[in-house]
Amino acid sequence: EGRSISPHSSALKPVPITNSGSMRQDDDVDALILDVNPEEDMQIIDQLLELQHLDQKFNNEQKDDQEKLDNVEGEIEAQEGRLLQLRERLEVYHSMKEKYERLMCE
Fold first, then answer.
1. What are the pLDDT digits (tens) for 57-81?
2. pTM for the full model?
3. Contact (CB, 8 A) for 24 and 15
4. DSSP for 46-78?
């Protein structure tokens, strides 16, 4: 949550080691365990799963869009090829037409 821990924080104070030190450490561990909120943890896990799902959905949509784009590019290239063929055939036709008209004038 963006909290910073200061060197004077109680979480950073050393636990004195005495005969009852292991008991105190056990109490600290128990306190940490009791401080856990399972509902909050489940909510975090649910949010992470939802983000993972959205990320996967985005990746799949991006893949589909890329495939569509590749198909469109292929179609454009094919149409360009057909247009170039048509252009060449029209040039041949106009050339033959000019030759025919010259022959008819002679």
1. 999 999 999 999 999 999 999 999 9
2. 0.48
3. yes
4. HHHHHHHHHHHHHHHHHHHHHHHHHHHHHHHHH
